[in-house]
Design a protein that fits this description.
TIM Barrel, two-stranded antiparallel sheet, disordered C terminus, 213 residues, globular, single chain, 11% strand, three-stranded parallel sheet, alpha/beta
Amino acid sequence: MMGEKEMSKYWLPWLVGMPAESARAICSLMFGGVFKKFPKLKFCFAHGGGSFPHTVGRVEHGYNCRPDLTQVNLQGPDESPLKWLGHFWVDSLVHSPEAFTFLVKIIGQNRIVLGTDYPFPLGECYPLKSCGELVEGYGPFSHKDKKQVLWYNALEFIGKDESVFLKKSQTDTKLEPQTLQTESQNTGDAKPIANEKQDISENKVVTEEKTTE
């Protein structure tokens, strides 16, 4: 991790080095022209993008004042760092309402997904807190805004419609794991354990079966 040897005390690699590492990753992709070359490639950075949102002004200024060093794969104001802010996602785990306010202003609430960092100590769920507490309790957000960050933006990120995950009406047939039956169960053979997972590429649910004795 960035700074692990230089900042071995006080847990600083995790408190300071990790956010800086995220900022370095974003800047590397940006200045390297990856966002430009692959506009459909989606990235989501943990911990609110680390320290990047708070240093983007400095990054933008450096791009303009030292083009000889920064404008190697990008050129001119039309490809400046500020242009690429809408080309990636970050999560919501910034630990304070004040930092979250700034994150929404810089990144935009349509590019923020729920982040928990579970089960690590720096995660929102530790100790004795509920995941999503920061977003749920964020005063300036309406119910619609909270819904967008808590789950709708994540659906957009993976390219899925909410209808794929929401249960249909009670009159429809429910295919839940505990009630799923197969031929082997009906014939008295060994019972398979159904493990459903989403196949993103083919937009369908694939069921893997394992046999237990």
